[in-house]
Design goal:
There is one protein chain. This protein is α/β, with parallel strands linked by helices. The chain has 4 domains: 56 residues, no CATH class; 273 residues, 3-Layer(aba) Sandwich (Rossmann fold), CATH 3.40.50; 68 residues, no CATH class; 106 residues, no CATH class. It contains 19 helices and 29 strands. The strands form 8 sheets. It has a 10-stranded mixed β-sheet, with helices on both faces. A 6-stranded mixed β-sheet has the order 1-29-28-27-26-25, sandwiched between helices. Strands 12-18-17 form a 3-stranded antiparallel β-sheet. Strand 20, helix 13 and strand 21 form a beta-alpha-beta unit. The longest helix has 20 residues. It is elongated, with a radius of gyration of 30 Å.
Length: 628
């Protein structure tokens, strides 16, 4: 979109919210339903006609605190994600991301740069068993709660609490925690994207209802049952719990596709060739089907003279003409002696598209809890620092089934970062270019735990170290191999680390005494809104995120010259094929306008204090100008 000449804008101090964008869309679609900036419900009902349902009794899903959980979505984030190159691997080249922070705030910050871009979301949230943790969201200031929770603001303000069954709002507290996070997750999914949520029996029924509400029950895709144990718990009070659930929803079920899976050795062994058919191995399929087919009601005579009708309640899957064609083509099998009931030959050569996945995932197919613990022990030299990891095999099955080879994968309850390891290993094995974003709260480990004694004070620290160790193990297998035989791109064996923190911009705090002197002092602080102690790279990344650039965008410092002595950076996001220039110097040189060779649609960002009227006017005429 062409910029208006002479226009000067400010970099936004807050991230947009999905609710705000929806209201803007509603205002564009139904301007007649708004009065003095507010939605007039009566006018809106008139505008949409009979579709509105205002009956007193109607189907709905509600819980105590739902309204407050919804209102959390209306609070724009004032936080930022601070880059930590020292914690990262291959910072300059990687497109993988790990974020330490409260996932609600992080999801709000991811909304603008990643809305509609994520292909697969997998999360393993707290199961609400009474011992796991529930995030203490607060309507007034969720960022403040997070800062106190993590000891960044008040070392004694650790508000992370368990949710005991004695809590009068046991299910409500869990639902209020999940609702805004799932709502934001839907906004990040691409139209052909899929979300999978692991859960146990405690909340699976409530989870299904809240996913129905957010994603629409028409977008329900599957309810997978995963066999997490292969040996019964003999001390179980009633029945041994052997499974977990994975609920699968699509953003738009009409746009998604599910990948076929490779056949196992056992499945391949079912294909034989007892009659030396030149078309190769085949397996016998039932010629009958349960679906009613009128033309499929006829009698078949076998080579041995046996008369065969379809079994009771079933029908031949073909008509008589089709059957005769199959016989002539040697596609009907009557057994070695020709005395068996007819079966249809399904050739392996004609079934190379793979196997259709099903909803029963046994432990030999998708791993189990014991396997997950052993994997972590092996990676961490014999001592597993995390109690409840998921097996890598399970996450690989998730990726193989639901994610494209070049898709962006998000896990915002990352835990020990099993999902990240699965992405890295699967890319190495099949040449994929999947990328990941992991988000994990820096929940503290117990002082006497294996993790704490090993030097991992938080769950996030465990996740970071797991990714590093997984990368080193893959490097030993062969670093830098091409991801595809005909593709020059090498493996992405790295990740960028970010920490959730307060914005580098000063926040308006108001004044207690409403007099000219107090207001003047407060306003003077905003002559330059950047807080003391700021550093260029964190500020640049905060600005980039607010402009909709991904966390994997590149920041390049341009060489200085005589006409442009200023330090200027170019920020590039190859995913959206966009870039902008930014200068954070105290003062801009007069020659910067022509030296940068900016065009009308180019974006240039600088500090407001660095501009004089002449330079500001020239820049605003030459390009899109935004100031901090």
């Amino acid at each position: 979109m062409a910029a208006k000449k002479g226009k000067r804008e400010s970099v936004t101090g807050e991230m947009p919210t999905p609710i705000g964008d929806r209201v803007d869309l509603l205002r564009r679609l139904f301007p007649e339903a708004f009065t003095e900036g507010k939605l007039d419900i009566a006018k809106f009902r008139d505008a949409v006609g009979d579709i509105a349902d205002d009956r007193t009794e109607r189907y709905s899903f509600a819980w105590t605190g739902k309204r407050d959980a919804t209102r959390l979505l209306q609070i724009p984030s004032r936080a930022t994600l601070v880059p930590r190159a020292d914690e990262s691997v291959a910072w300059e080249t990687t497109q993988n991301v790990f974020v330490e922070g409260d996932n609600l705030e992080v999801l709000k910050l991811l909304y603008k740069p990643y809305a509609g871009r994520v292909k697969l979301i997998y999360i393993d949230p707290p199961y609400n068993t009474g011992q796991d943790f529930i995030y203490p969201d607060n309507f007034a200031d969720p960022l403040d709660i997070y800062l106190r929770l993590t000891g960044q603001k008040d070392a004694n303000g650790n508000l992370l609490t368990s949710n005991p069954e004695t809590n009068g709002r046991y299910h409500s507290a869990w639902l209020s925690m999940m609702y805004p996070r799932l709502f934001l997750a839907r906004q990040l999914l691409a139209d052909d994207g899929v979300i999978l949520v692991s859960i146990d029996d405690t909340e699976v029924h409530n989870l299904r209802l809240v996913l129905n509400e957010i994603f629409g029950e028409e977008n329900f895709l599957a309810h997978i049952v995963w066999q997490k144990r292969y040996v019964s718990n003999m001390t179980a009070k009633f029945l041994s719990d052997m499974h977990d659930h994975i609920l699968v929803f699509a953003r738009n079920i009409n746009s998604i596709s599910v990948n076929k899976l490779d056949r196992s050795e056992e499945q391949l062994a079912a294909y034989k060739n007892p009659d030396d058919d030149p078309r190769g191995p085949w397996r016998a399929q039932d010629l009958s089907a349960s679906k009613y087919y009128k033309a499929g009601q006829f009698t078949i005579t076998t080579p041995a003279g046996l008369k065969c009708d379809p079994p009771p309640g079933r029908y031949w899957r073909c008509n008589e003409d089709q059957y005769n064609e199959w016989v002539a083509d040697n596609r009907i099998w009557f057994g070695v002696e020709g005395t068996a009931r007819p079966m249809l030959k399904a050739f392996l050569s004609g079934a190379q598209d793979g196997v259709t996945p099903n909803t029963w995932w046994p432990h030999d197919f998708a791993g189990h809890n014991k396997e997950a613990t052993l994997e972590l022990k092996a990676l961490f030299d014999g001592a597993a620092p995390f109690d409840t990891p998921k097996p890598v095999k399970l996450l690989r099955r998730v990726l193989e089934t639901f994610a494209p080879k070049d898709g962006l994968i998000l896990d915002f309850f990352a835990g020990s970062a099993t999902t990240a390891q699965a992405v890295l290993e699967l890319n190495h094995d099949d040449g994929g270019t999947r990328r990941f974003i992991m988000v994990q709260l820096p929940e503290t480990t117990e002082p006497d735990s294996v993790a704490h004694k090993a030097g991992y004070p938080t769950i996030a620290a465990i996740g970071l170290e797991r990714i590093r160790r997984a990368i080193k193990r893959i490097e030993k297998l062969g670093n830098g191999k091409p991801t595809l035989e005909n593709h020059a791109t090498t493996e992405d064996l790295g990740f960028r680390s970010f920490h959730l923190s307060t914005s580098h911009n000063r926040q308006w705090a108001g004044v207690s005494d409403r007099n000219a002197e107090s207001l003047g002092k407060q306003m003077a602080l905003f002559v330059d809104p950047l807080l003391p102690g700021w550093k260029p790279l964190p500020v640049i990344h905060e600005v980039a995120t607010r402009e909709g650039y991904s966390l994997s965008c590149r920041v390049e410092e341009l060489p200085k010259n005589v006409t442009r002595p200023n330090t200027v950076f170019r920020v590039i996001d190859t995913d959206i094929n966009q870039s902008f220039h930014i200068c954070l110097d105290d003062k801009l040189s007069p020659g910067i306008v022509t030296a940068l060779e900016l065009e009308q649609d180019d974006l240039f960002i600088c500090r407001d204090v660095a501009l004089n009227d002449e330079i500001a006017a020239n820049l605003a005429l030459q390009c899109r100008l935004k100031t901090i």
